[in-house]
Design brief:
It is a single chain. The protein has 4 domains: about 1-120, Rossmann fold; about 140-225, Alpha-Beta Plaits, CATH 3.30.70.1450; about 235-350, NAD(P)-binding Rossmann-like Domain (Rossmann fold, 3-Layer(aba) Sandwich); about 350-450, Regulator of K+ conductance, C-terminal domain (Alpha-Beta Plaits, 2-Layer Sandwich). It has 15 helices and 22 strands. The protein has helices at about 10-20, 35-40, 55-60, 75-90, 110-115, 125-135, 175, 215-225, 240-250, 265-275, 285-290, 310-320, 335-340, 350-360, 435-450, and strands at about 1-5, 25-30, 45-50, 70, 95-100, 120, 140-145, 150-160, 185-190, 190-195, 205-215, 235, 255-260, 280, 300-305, 325-330, 345-350, 365-375, 380-385, 405-410, 415, 430-435. Strands 3-2-1-4-5-6 form a 6-stranded parallel β-sheet, sandwiched between helices. It is globular and about 65 Å long. It starts with a strand and ends with a helix.
Length: about 450
């Protein structure tokens, strides 16, 4: 597969790194010599220092035989132009554009129908805001997301000592909980990702990822000794795109929200945009300001400035003042292994959201969604089993899945089923799989060969 990436910033760099590690043929185009030099020195990809919206440059990069063009610069205009030019040069190339301007929000879902030269609009900030909102109401969850148009959820939870399932083997779940047993997709222990089998036990302190029907979420959380607690008061540190989008959603949900923003002009703009949200000018990491604003009375503190260190400090200060539910925006992947050790567990990343949005279109096979978790060490993949698939109409125990990959559940006629070795996938089923990073390439081959129409 040949992929051209226009933009060598953080998103472009990280998606190039991910695809290069999977032996994809990647060409990166950017006008910034320093950004190009970084990618050239770090990654095994082809780099062109030039404008990615130039037809001459795109032809030089081989756009006419490229499978996908990803336009992910910081400029919406350049991204749109790159897709338009690519459409003129090669209509068979799939085109993805990163668009962050809020003026396009009203057209986000059907934008590609309005402008046919774009196949997919990528706005990771919208995905991050949606994730934050879901995390707010489940204080014990460290990660949460949807499959099957919202009918199924995945949740990552740190297991407590008093949890009813602590110390249990997965094979015993059926006898204990019956059909209400949780679907365990992954266990993270001592920073190692474990793809579970029946003999595995879940220990206190494990980060456990489970999958369940959305309508059964509350019941499933009780098995982990946790509950849903809708919030009433929220404090947002950082009034940028993410902070302002989140505040507007909270206003619609009837949640009392405050934003602390350090830029005075931005505060003025926010105060004009918001209806009920209180906008405060100040340093979000100022402990004195926190005390004055009774931060300890907030149900949740969300730190989403553009500075990782500030966000970490804010969350630690909030915890020190008694706030149990904190959500932290982190951009640097190198921070992920260290965060849990200092008490920072609910983390969101626009970069990871961008990678997930892009991978859905990059993956071969009939893939509906592809969600990176754990700092890209694992992926949930949702796909449709088609008539051509060798995975269908055979017991799962007779199918060789790559080591480090597991079929988490089967969704058939809106019914969510926990698979066993005797279970069979039939054409039309939605299947949700989990795989560690090292197994994704082999799993993609399985999806390509056995799930894709020929």
């Amino acid at each position: 597969m040949k992929i051209i990436i226009v933009g060598a910033g953080e998103v472009g760099y990280n998606i190039a790194k991910r695809l290069a590690s999977e032996n994809k043929h990647v060409i990166v185009i950017d006008q910034n010599p320093d950004a190009c030099r970084r990618i050239s020195e770090d990654l095994d990809v082809q780099v062109i220092t030039a404008s990615g919206s130039s037809p001459v440059v795109l032809l030089k990069a081989g756009v006419q035989d490229a499978d996908i063009l990803l336009a992910v610069t910081d400029s919406d205009e350049i991204n749109l132009t790159a897709c338009l030019i690519t459409n003129l040069l090669s209509q068979t190339t799939k085109k993805l554009a990163r668009i962050r301007n809020s003026d396009f929000d009203a057209y986000h879902d059907n934008f590609k129908n309005q402008i046919p030269h774009i196949d997919t609009i990528i706005n990771p900030e919208i995905e991050v805001v949606n994730t934050i909102r879901k995390l707010m109401d489940v204080p014990g969850a460290q990660d949460i997301g949807d499959f099957a148009d919202g009918k199924v959820k995945y949740v990552g939870i740190r297991l407590k000592k008093d949890s009813p399932i602590a110390g249990m083997r997965l094979i015993d779940f059926h006898d204990t909980f019956g059909e209400d047993r949780p679907l365990i997709a992954a266990i993270i222990r001592n920073n190692v990702v474990i793809v579970p089998r029946g003999s595995h036990k879940i220990h206190p302190g494990d980060l456990v990822y489970f999958v369940c029907e959305t309508e059964k979420l509350e019941k499933t959380l009780k098995l982990f000794g946790m509950a849903i607690h809708p919030i009433q008061r929220a404090l947002i540190i950082g009034g940028g795109r993410i902070g302002s989008r989140l505040a507007k959603i909270l206003e619609q949900d009837g949640v009392k929200a405050k934003i602390i923003e350090s830029d005075r002009q931005r505060c003025h703009n926010l105060s004009e945009q918001m209806d009920k949200t209180v906008v405060l000018h100040g340093d979000g990491s100022d402990q004195k300001l926190f005390i004055e604003e009774n931060v300890g009375q907030s149900d949740v503190v969300v730190s989403v400035t553009n500075d990782d260190e500030t966000n970490i400090l804010v969350s630690l200060l909030a915890k020190n003042l008694g706030v149990q539910n904190t959500i932290t925006r982190i951009g640097k992947a190198s921070y992920y292994p260290l965060l849990a050790t200092i008490g920072i567990e609910k983390v969101v990343s626009p970069r990871l959201s961008a990678v997930s949005s892009i991978l859905k279109d990059v993956r071969q096979g009939n893939v509906l969604s592809d969600i990176s978790i754990l700092g890209e060490r694992g992926e949930f993949i949702e796909a449709i089993a088609l008539e051509t698939s060798d995975i269908t109409n055979r017991p799962l125990r007779k199918i060789s899945f790559p080591k480090g990959a597991i079929l988490v559940c089967i969704i058939r006629n809106s019914q969510v089923m926990i698979p066993s070795g005797l279970s069979m996938v039939i054409p039309g089923d939605r299947i949700i799989l989990f795989a560690i990073k090292q197994a994704v390439k082999k799993l993609e081959k399985l999806l390509t060969v056995k799930l894709e129409f020929f």
